Amino acid sequence: MIAKMLKNLIERAETWPREAQEELAHIASEIESEIGADAYHATPEELAGVDRGLTEAREGRFATDKKVNAVFSKFLGS
Prior knowledge:
- By secondary structure, this protein is mainly α.
- It contains 4 helices and no strands.
- Helices cover 74% and strands 0% of the residues.
- The N and C termini lie far apart (46 Å).
């Protein structure tokens, strides 16, 4: 049943604008890569960021409530 639904969707998607088709292909590729992945492997940049965060936490360097609230206000439009 699901296979038939997917087949029908793909057939309809062939009539979609190119950008929508590319988005569908990108999303499907992400899902497929997650299914086949045994474990996530962080990039060197991500690992460096984690190390920085752990160092700052050990040093007691945390954002104040005032700073956190300011960020939320900025992005949430409050």
